[in-house]
Design goal:
Keywords: Membrane, Signal, Transmembrane, Transmembrane helix. By secondary structure, the chain is mainly alpha-helical. The chain has one domain. Helices cover 70% and strands 0% of the residues.
């Protein structure tokens, strides 16, 4: 689990800030909330799967 956290932290540090707020990234558009939610759903599902596997893993 510790390796996974370190890998994700490293990847987050490597991403550039312009990637998060490029020109044309309009937060005031009518569908922007839905689009951002749809982008976050896979991340949330992956996090739930990882946590579930950690909880249900047999203790060593």
């Amino acid at each position: 689990m510790k390796k996974v956290v370190i890998i994700f932290a490293g990847l987050a540090l490597l991403l550039s800030n312009p990637l998060f707020a490029h020109p044309g990234h309009d937060h005031s558009a009518s569908g922007s909330g839905l689009v951002h939610l749809l982008w976050l759903v896979p991340v949330i599902v992956a996090a739930v799967v990882v946590v579930f596997r950690e909880i249900t893993a047999p203790k060593r």
